[in-house]
Amino acid sequence: MPHIYHSWSRLGLGALMGTTALAGCGQSTSTPAPAAEPAAIEAPAVTAEALAAEAGPVGSVGGEGEGGVAIEQAATDPVVFNIALAVTEAHILAARDAFAAGEVDAAAEMFAHPVSEVLFDMEPVLQARGVTLFDELLTDASIAAASGETPDQISARTDGIIAALRAAALKAPDNGTAAVDVTAHVIDDMIERAVAMYRGASASGVYEPYLDGYGFHKVAETNFAAAREAIMASNPEAAAAMANAIAALAVAYPDAAPQDVLPADISQLTVLASDVTLSVN
User: Fold this and answer.
1) 8 A C-beta contact, residue 271 and residue 210
2) Which of 7-11, 15-19, 96-100, 149-153 has the weakest average pLDDT?
3) pLDDT for residue 72
4) What contacts 179, CB < 8 A, 6 or more positions away?
5) Is 260 contained in some domain?
6) Angle, CA 196 vertex, CA 195 and CA 201 arms, to 5°
7) Which residues contact 208 (CB under 8 A, 6 or more apart)?
8) Class of residue 62 by CB neighbours under 10 A (exposed 0-12, middle 13-18, buried 19+)
9) What pLDDT sits at residue 222?
10) DSSP 8-state code for residue 178
11) Which of 68, 69, 209, 212 could lock onto 53 through a cystine, CB 3.0 to 4.6 A?
12) Where are the beta strands (DSSP E) in 62-125?
């Protein structure tokens, strides 16, 4: 599975960190791609953003921020506000687990990527909601990952970022949507993204969409574990559909390391994700 990463669109974090591994689309030195496949390295057929936008998740439109998040709606819609935070958390969890798996370059990028593609656009919304900005936590974690910190230190940084995300979620806008319904929509969105990323990773053989999808799956899994009883009480059909989809995604995404093969049935994953969307909506 070739290691191809995002190019930086705004903040020049590769220059900030002084490492060519994060300056643009590049290849991890840990797993070089075969010389016979230069075209796949220079011009990957899929990107995480395009695939997630294609999935058409709740509260999103193609091209608006990372993975199609409709940033302009986040000021008034708690679902969109929380989806933006969830997309950020997905990258953080993927970064932590990729680092633990020895994928240092991928982890460093995954920590920093939401700064340019989510938090940059979300900053006015977060400030208007009274959220203490936390983009420096992500940038610092990215630098730390590239600078030789231990997995335990990176895990501690991850915990700090997630705590900041939880604090931000408490200041989401209120449009009358019940909290359990907001959570259900966020889980639905994360499942859709995870399936879209798996489809892209299977088609391209590229590590990046797999790692993105792994993060989306982990956020769906952790959110569902925390809210399962509430969702079951509110919408038993949705709870059952989520349990089925998340169980299948756990098989599709066994860990954050590059996979030699991706054997999960994409058609089955797509149907399970659609079941969630239909039950939630």
Assistant:
1) no
2) 7-11
3) 78
4) none
5) yes
6) 95
7) 3, 4, 5, 6, 44, 47, 48, 106, 201
8) middle
9) 97
10) -
11) 68
12) none
CA angle 102, 107, 113 (to 5 degrees): 170
Assigned domain for 5 exists: no
* C-beta separation of 109 from 22 below 8 A: yes
- Pick 5 or 247 by higher pLDDT: 247
Q: Do residues 260 and 280 make contact, with C-beta atoms less than 8 angstroms apart? A: no
Token pair, residue 148, equals: 């030789």
Distances (CA, A) of 108 to 70, 116, 139, 206: 26, 14, 9, 17
Look up the pTM and report it: 0.79
Residue 158 lies inside a defined structural domain of this protein: yes
Question: For tokens 């939630």, what's the residue?
Answer: 280
For residue 2, name the pLDDT band (cuts at 50, 70, 90).
low
For residue 17, tell me if it sits in a domain: no
| b/e 7-22 (16+ beta carbons within 10 angstroms → b) | ebeebebbeebebebb
Its domain, for residue 114, covers 47-280
71: amino acid identity, one letter: I
Q: What share of the chain is helix, strand, coil (3-state, %, to 5)?
A: 70, 0, 30
